[in-house]
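Narrative progress, year one. The postdoctoral researcher (J.K.) led the effort to move from monomer predictions toward full complexes, under supervision of the PI. The following entry was the first complex the group processed end to end, covering 594 residues in total.
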Amino acid sequence: MPILSMLSLLDYAGVAVFAATGALSASRKQLDIIGYLFFGAVTGIGGGTLRDLILGQAPVFWVRDPTYLVITTAAAIAVFLSANRFESRYRLLLWLDAAGLALFCVMGAEKGLAATGSPLLALVTGILTATFGGILRDLLAGEPSVLLRPEIYISAALTGSALFVLSLAFGAAPWLALLSGALVAFLVRGGALKFGWT
Amino acid sequence: MPILSMLSLLDYAGVAVFAATGALSASRKQLDIIGYLFFGAVTGIGGGTLRDLILGQAPVFWVRDPTYLVITTAAAIAVFLSANRFESRYRLLLWLDAAGLALFCVMGAEKGLAATGSPLLALVTGILTATFGGILRDLLAGEPSVLLRPEIYISAALTGSALFVLSLAFGAAPWLALLSGALVAFLVRGGALKFGWT
Amino acid sequence: MPILSMLSLLDYAGVAVFAATGALSASRKQLDIIGYLFFGAVTGIGGGTLRDLILGQAPVFWVRDPTYLVITTAAAIAVFLSANRFESRYRLLLWLDAAGLALFCVMGAEKGLAATGSPLLALVTGILTATFGGILRDLLAGEPSVLLRPEIYISAALTGSALFVLSLAFGAAPWLALLSGALVAFLVRGGALKFGWT
């Protein structure tokens, strides 16, 4: 697969799973369907929006390509139609959030590296893209931030971003660097959720 | 009235009523006069600031035209001098917030449409401009967000923005589209406040 | 000392002390070392980031000069290694926050004045730069905002910014305007902390 298509695909997937966590948050707060759409959009595109603003890339990505809004809308509707089937919506939210974190830490690092050429800034935009959507979601829902839970969270995003940047520096193909960074971030955060790693 | 003057007038009015809700929040928190000014400014110009940043229109509107800061300051002082006369400041806050929401959803949609030409993005900037000032106010004041109240809120902003965009698409004069969108948004949100519509 | 070096020095110092308050917040929440780094960075550079975005100066300052991230990292590590020695970390946080507020209100006003030429906007960017990092820190940590404490807070930032702007207008040398503005802001906020001024 060409690397550009793969980047888009991972990005769309990350937006979809984060949007689903936002919609699950709306579900837990018993909001109406428009509330699902709103929380889905804010959570799905919040991290990338902050990243674009900081890098000076405005108008931001979802203004340039409204496909992203279609994706958050579809994800929010899917959750609206199915959320009541899940026994523990918060548990599901945490696992989807882990998937979104894994996808966004490498995507954010990739965009930061492309824009600035600095590995340090790539780590920062990786972490920021991966965490800010969830931070916004929890702030707006009035829930304790997932940042403050005892298990590993920001460290997983850092690990994934760092592995991506290091793999590239050691000459790995971009697709391999992306996939291995995302996979390791997911394993670290997943281990934290499953085994309570701190 | 020329459409540009009318746009400015509606915009100034929206900033004034949102600034008043911020100042009422400061009053409920027993802040000093500078706290009133701060909460007035953040609430009055917060939504439009986010809109401008996302659309890539920086420096933002109130840096280009400091009249907006004069308006938030005047509204905050007016509340400072009169807030103790109101029996229920929270009730007043909610009604002024409804007026601000109605004015800002059409103004935000108008600016989003002018900047992008996309009706979908116009809905998004309409909702975002109408809600983000109040979200910031509640976050900074440590109050449960008005978003999470059971009655209709975001939907009212969506209705107003959508009516504005549709009216234009069907050839309505801009002033008519603006006024009807704002009026319907206010009626929807006002009905929610008065009759508890959910 | 040339005025540019002095500006950089005050700016770096402000970032360092605000980063330390963020790390203290992470310490109070018993986060891991990565949490210290994250809260240090967000608090140290949050206010200046918002200032740059509003003024249309993107990419923001710490993307242009990553020294700032090195400083927040160093400050966070210093707090990580020493925080358990302090009897009252919250008291220390408040005093460092006062120092950061004093440094940032004049730095923010200086940058706002340089960018816009408007004394009114200089006051606004002064207050915003001085307060927004701490607002973010408290929001993310789920703590009551320092804004809402009864003692003088925003007023101290306003006093410092105003003294800086007025001193310049009356022909004072820039270094004198910077130092006197920062000193008076610190004295006002320090008096509020020490004697409970409201």
